[in-house]
Amino acid sequence: MLRLHGSITPKLVIPILLVGGWATAITCISKLVYDLGTDQVFITVLGFVVSLALSVRSSTSMDRYFQGRQLWGRLRLASHILARLVWIHVEERHGFDAELGKQDLLGKVSCLNLIVAFAVALKHKLRFEPGTHYEDLKHLVGHLDTFAQGANMPAPDPPSAFRRACQLFGIPMATPNPRRHVKKSAVPLGDLPLEILSHLSAYIKVLYDTGTLRDYSIYQTQSLDSLTIMDEVSCGTERILNTPLPLAYSIAIAQVTWLYILLLPFQCFNSLGWITIPACIVAAYIILGIAFIGREIEDPFGHDVNDLPLDAFCQQIRQDIDIIISHAAPLANDFMGRKENMPLYPLSYLSTRAWADKSPEEIHVALSQRVALHYPMVGHGESPAPPAQGRLCGVERWTEKGASGPNETTSNYRRRYGSV
């Protein structure tokens, strides 16, 4: 309740002080000089209008916030699909030519790096940060011919301590305008995410032409669909960014809200007396807090604490790509046939190799019995316990005397399948 990081309270300090001073002045005048109290009918009518306006403002801002989150979730999904498709299904021609195979491998890695570059470039675009000189971007796109590469400009000077303090308290004149830095550019800045997509499309075309991505229509469709999703995410986030709440509507909400707050002391004095001052302060804190929160999350892509964590999203996509390329493309025969693979657990501890010696009918009979078993559950923070003799998973188990491990569930399985 007392947490300030991420709270709207610091930005409400100055407005609350103004409201407190205004309520104190009206109350003192009404108490000591002339009674300014009025009937409370007006506050009821205007309160309904204010609540309706703030509700629309808050719901619109929250909708934009969650739309932005959904779009970044789709970007991560498209990145996974395209990265897996390229890393696993694109062949490396090592057997045909060693040098050509290395080029194929490095080409796949470069393609996956461009997927990360797209996410990072989109983040900077949404924050009105032109160019490619950023530490998390320049090594990813330095080899590309783009407008942003030729339009590098120095980063804006950091705000002074006074300006940062003014921003902390929500003074409008101190609010930075990142669009101004972009509009004053003397050269075209281009659209870096779109240009990265063009390079990715060119790489996919090379895969089709060389046959390293075999002519399977499903692979081609998935790769193009992934690029389409990435383009939709770019356009969708830009739509949210460049379509704010209409200015006239925002002004009307602010005017009605402040009119309601400034009229509160007149309406409350007759019934509350000196308590009008703290009552108006509390009411102003609630009303202005809702209004300020709606205004802050209206643009969910900025640097505010309550904005979407775009840096974390980009880092997550980068880590996902690194996990995919950390091992060579796995072959099913390599991991399916390992002795640690127990396909019929917990019915049997036999490995895939052992079950391969049995007939399909025997495997199907065993599978029909496994449906009645229950898998052992492990609670949060617990380590799985070794299988105990006697009852396991609700089924009677036994161990043959002298055997090194547990055997099949019943004597019938023992006769049919042998010891486990």
Automatic annotation (TrEMBL):
<keyword id="KW-0406">Ion transport</keyword>
<keyword id="KW-0472">Membrane</keyword>
<feature type="transmembrane region" description="Helical">
    <location>
        <begin position="272"/>
        <end position="293"/>
    </location>
</feature>
<keyword id="KW-1003">Cell membrane</keyword>
<dbReference type="InterPro" id="IPR044669">
    <property type="entry name" value="YneE/VCCN1/2-like"/>
</dbReference>
<feature type="transmembrane region" description="Helical">
    <location>
        <begin position="247"/>
        <end position="266"/>
    </location>
</feature>
<feature type="region of interest" description="Disordered">
    <location>
        <begin position="400"/>
        <end position="420"/>
    </location>
</feature>
<dbReference type="Pfam" id="PF25539">
    <property type="entry name" value="Bestrophin_2"/>
</dbReference>
<dbReference type="GO" id="GO:0005254">
    <property type="term" value="F:chloride channel activity"/>
</dbReference>
<keyword id="KW-1133">Transmembrane helix</keyword>
<protein>
    <submittedName>
        <fullName>Uncharacterized protein</fullName>
    </submittedName>
</protein>
<feature type="transmembrane region" description="Helical">
    <location>
        <begin position="40"/>
        <end position="59"/>
    </location>
</feature>
<keyword id="KW-0812">Transmembrane</keyword>
<dbReference type="GO" id="GO:0005886">
    <property type="term" value="C:plasma membrane"/>
</dbReference>
<feature type="transmembrane region" description="Helical">
    <location>
        <begin position="12"/>
        <end position="34"/>
    </location>
</feature>
<keyword id="KW-0813">Transport</keyword>
